[in-house]
From TrEMBL:
EC number(s) on file: 1.-.-.-
PROSITE patterns reported in the protein's UniProt record: QOR_ZETA_CRYSTAL
Cell compartments where the protein resides: Cytoplasm
Domain of life of the organism encoding this protein: Bacteria
Signal peptide start and end residues: none
Biological classification of the source: Bacteria, Bacillati, Actinomycetota, Actinomycetes, Kitasatosporales
Protein's name in the database: NADP-dependent oxidoreductase
GO molecular function: oxidoreductase activity
TM helices/strands, residue ranges: none
Biological source species: Streptomyces werraensis
Positions of the Enoyl reductase (ER) domain: 10-295
Amino acid sequence: MKKVSYAEFGGPDVLRLIDADKPHAGPGEIRIAVRAAGVNPVDWRIREGQMRPALPASLPSGVGLDAAGVVDEVGEGVTDVAAGDRVFGEGTDTYAEFAVLHAWARMPEGLPFEEAAGYPSVMETALRVLRECGIRPGQTLLVSGASGGVGSAVLQIARDRGITVVGTAGAANLAYLRGLGAHATTYAEGWPERVRAFTSVDAALDLAGAGVVRELVELTGDPAGVVSIADRTAPEMGVRFSNVAGSVPDALKETVRLLEQGRLHIPVEEAYSLAEAAAAHTDSRAGHTRGRRVIVI
């Protein structure tokens, strides 16, 4: 099978498309024929070596956590799916023609593989940071970097829960945020004053790592109400840096519920082939994403 791999930490140029043996599903796992794999910032952060020692990687290493595809092999003890079922979930080395998943859910009828591959890690992260920041129905949440995958999920989950959201993004993505039900403003100079003009803020999320944690604390009035997934200096200001994943199966269950009720849709901004994985990482790292980027096999 074809698989994206790297033998040393570094830039996107270290990625190689190689021939590899198919992995096998162990107990409690499944193997899928991958149809699409999600491109997440954590993928290139791991490749760059940023995640050591929290996520140590033995080299050479594959790439990717999220995927959607068709069940190809079922491990011991798995009874909820069978070969031929369409599933999406989280596993290892998903930038490949075949991959092993350790958490999965059946795909709702009509959901494209490309879209499904973008949900697992994004929804787990969105649900986690909403829980950690303590936001409640009827309150107002500020989201910095709101147009990417996690931001898109946060906005839609918040809307479903009766939470008002103010989102910041590039000028080209403001209409997109408004379409998801958020008040929107650019992150150009003066953005805190523009946010104050909308409303007072009860909690805030830093999803882009744009050096705005101090302003988020000032707007909320309490560092305990601010959570970052992208700025490792956040704890220096009393802000939680969230990097420990919660329950992926629970996140997938909630994803399916929202999808089936028509309350969730994260668009695929761009799709890449396995051979274009380096370009996918370059574009993901550049930011300004509207929705998701995926690898299509």
